[in-house]
């Protein structure tokens, strides 16, 4: 039986070029680059050269500087570093710089209701420790409510984290508009706050205590976006998005699993206020200790080169596949409905279709399709094994029965129109 994979949003097959690029660095004595990048001898410097070259490639792809690319063990780790690291640094600076009678600056973070579990669950964990978390609702298509973000911002807000494109329904969030709201808030806050200053710190200069005795930092709030799903199809130039932090993942773009990237904006030759959550040898400019995984880093950069060159062509091809797929699904099962925005419309990724099948349990349908050689998903792979109802679909205001009867189909590089046609035959046979 020929199997067809329609779960590219969960993970992508590794591109042959990526495998070839990685092979010399896997640690065999006959290979180059097996040394520890931290070693000063030839073998170590050879490995570090590969890491540096990869960092340059990824930095160039998003318009960042060399030092702004931090390699992590996964996108989940990068997201944890953002949330936990920014909170930890602010608490550390609060304790160090505030007057004895001044209150801590605050610990409010703002996220959307449809973030990836690595953001949602981390935020919930931080809530247990006393962090205030504001969950911004979304409309029926999954787009965050900008007015609610604007209203939620205050001088105690440390971080805003809104994903660029959703992994379950493919909705693209208005990241540029959110960045503008945050920048306007910072500008207003900075212009008003000096009127109430009762204590200023000279080092760093952007810290003061206002008349309400709150430690205030005009660098905050930081703005982070999880661009894991977006990177393959959308503009991720950091100068355009105006983000302080951005998360990427290799295995969503035909690279290896076990390697992620966190873009960390540098200002005045200093990385922003964020501290490591993994300590040790101080690798990755002090933000992520641990010996660099050279083959995976090389694989990541090779995958970035591939998608950077093929992006326009793949966007067009994915749009054609998804629109054809949805049109044929409606012929097979007229009662089917799209969750989120329909294929072919704006503000959605071209490769994700989340479909409601009335009268069919998604769990049972998934199993039947798998037995017929078709791999699909009920939603985020990080929650799928437990068959937990989708929090993303719930945030759209959908009924529990609709959530339980919905499947995600996602397409990618190695999928052809003939694969789509065969997949539709399998779906028709099961339905």
Automatic annotation (TrEMBL):
Query: Could you tell me which InterPro entries the record lists for this protein?
Result: Aminotrans_V_dom (IPR000192), Aminotrans_V_PyrdxlP_BS (IPR020578), Cysteine_dSase (IPR016454), PyrdxlP-dep_Trfase (IPR015424), PyrdxlP-dep_Trfase_major (IPR015421), PyrdxlP-dep_Trfase_small (IPR015422)
Q: Which cofactor does it need?
A: pyridoxal 5'-phosphate
GO MF terms here are: cysteine desulfurase activity; iron-sulfur cluster binding; metal ion binding
Establish whether keyword Iron-sulfur is in the entry: yes
- Which Pfam family, giving just one, matches this sequence? Aminotran_5
Reaction(s) catalysed (UniProt annotation):
(sulfur carrier)-H + L-cysteine = (sulfur carrier)-SH + L-alanine
Q: Does the keyword Transferase apply?
A: yes
Q: Keyword annotations for this protein?
A: Iron, Iron-sulfur, Metal-binding, Pyridoxal phosphate, Transferase
Q: Which residues form the Aminotransferase class V domain?
A: 4-187, 222-421
Q: What is its EC number?
A: 2.8.1.7
Q: What family does the Swiss-Prot or TrEMBL record give for this protein?
A: Belongs to the class-V pyridoxal-phosphate-dependent aminotransferase family. NifS/IscS subfamily.
What is the protein name stated in its UniProt record? cysteine desulfurase
Origin species: Candidatus Jorgensenbacteria bacterium CG11_big_fil_rev_8_21_14_0_20_38_23
List the taxonomic lineage. Bacteria, Candidatus Joergenseniibacteriota
